[in-house]
Design goal:
By secondary structure, the protein is mostly helical. About 60% of the residues lie in helices and about 5% in strands. It has 16 helices and 4 strands. Helix 4 (about 95-120) packs antiparallel against helix 6 and helix 8 (about 175-185) runs antiparallel to helix 9.
Length: about 400
């Protein structure tokens, strides 16, 4: 009897482990969201406005944060999530913004796994790194909500993490630039990362190759700058963005004059990021995460692993600089994020700390660090549960 030839194994363009991480992250975040449809769907409103040919939104009421300006209402947050929603809004109308947040959470988690694998972290340890990024930070918490502020954080973190993964992979200048520009158009602080990403894509290349790569990088960044200036002109009539300053001038927590970024807010932010904690009570639920947030040392102590990254030296230095420059605006801003679990503004710089954690885990991941990662993930899950149970029922 003739033997039946073995069927060739299906070759996937993406490793099965990467696909598994993406699916698990999506399902975990979706289960935490419980089918939630966020009422704070500013980006859907913005996409609808674009489809009707104008920059201002049809303002449904005070529950939607929008800046009154020249008799119209404008979304002041960076517009990238609305760009991503645009084709779906065009096809289906008022779509569920939270679904995009869940998808971006999965993409960001997958990017953390990909970065870890590309810098030489073994698969099992890369799972720990990806799991921490998903649940040990505010990523899943923000993703399950999908509110305008939260989806901006998730999008910024996802694009920053994928830019890092590309910067240690094929290092295509145009693609790294596109990802960084998309990150900046999600969270403005990421504009400060652009020069360092230019260094990452050009390092260790021969001169001619570096020049070509930087030319492609610069061209994409230049196109992004043109679009950004055009968007500001469409809203404010000036090339620079005045939205956050104008909001600060009318906000009860702000001031009628000055900038929302001032050194006098520094110690308030230091206390928020490193000293604040939950309230302990003698009655259930015993531990109460106040809406003003909790410090990273309480929610995400595994971030300390970043300090043990030793090499490659140029990459370690670049990641620390990226973390520092993208964190800087949050440490002089007039509010710490307020209604939140943990410190949501930390998502602006945590991708770079997660990158450092991955570098520290290349040789081994001691049991102590696994305990801290597991603790951070459990606290993150608990925060999601608490928020659903007491603050924002689905």
């Amino acid at each position: 009897m003739a033997t039946v030839p073995a069927v060739a194994r299906l070759r996937l363009p993406i490793p099965r482990s990467t696909i598994a991480v993406a699916l698990v992250a999506f399902l975990v975040t979706a289960s935490l969201a419980h089918g939630r449809v966020t009422p704070y769907n500013n980006y859907v409103l913005l996409a609808q406005a674009w489809l009707h040919g104008h920059a201002w939104i049809d303002w449904p009421g005070a529950y939607i944060d929008a800046l009154p300006y020249n008799g119209r209402y404008y979304v002041i947050e960076a517009p990238m999530p609305a760009v991503l929603l645009l084709p779906f809004v065009a096809l289906f109308g008022a779509v569920n913004q939270t679904l995009l947040a869940i998808a971006l959470t999965s993409i960001g988690t997958t990017a953390a796994f990909a970065f870890a694998r590309r810098v030489g972290v073994a698969r099992e340890r890369a799972y720990w790194i990806a799991g921490f990024f998903l649940l040990g930070t505010d990523l899943a918490w923000a993703g399950m909500l999908g509110d305008v502020w939260m989806i901006a954080h998730v999008a910024g973190a996802a694009f920053a993490m994928w830019a890092l993964a590309e910067a240690v992979g094929k290092r295509r200048g145009w693609l790294v630039a596109l990802l960084v520009v998309c990150g900046f158009e999600s969270r403005f602080s990421l504009v400060l990362a652009i020069p360092l990403f230019a260094y990452l894509v050009a390092r260790d290349r021969v001169r001619a190759d570096a020049e070509r790569t930087l030319a492609a990088f610069g061209a994409v960044c230049g196109a992004g700058a043109v679009l950004w200036v055009s968007w500001n002109l469409a809203r404010w009539g000036v090339p620079n963005d005045i939205g956050y300053t104008a909001w600060y001038h009318q906000d009860a927590a702000g001031s009628p004059v000055g900038s929302p970024f001032q050194l006098r807010y520094f110690w308030y932010e230091v206390e928020s990021f490193f000293l604040s904690g939950p309230t302990f009570r003698a009655t259930p639920p015993f531990v109460v995460p106040e809406m003003t947030g909790q410090s990273l040392l309480w929610t995400s102590p595994a971030l300390l692993l970043a300090f043990f990254a030793r090499g490659p030296r140029t990459l370690v230095v670049a990641l620390w600089l990226l973390a520092a420059v993208t964190a800087a605006p949050s440490f002089v801003y007039y509010v710490n994020g307020f209604a939140q679990f943990g410190m949501r503004h930390a998502l602006d710089f945590e991708p770079f700390l997660v990158g450092l954690m991955a570098l520290a885990a290349r040789e081994r991941l001691h049991a102590t660090w696994k305990v801290l990662i597991a603790y951070s993930m459990l606290v993150g899950l608990w925060g999601c549960w608490y928020w659903n149970a007491f603050f924002r029922a689905p």
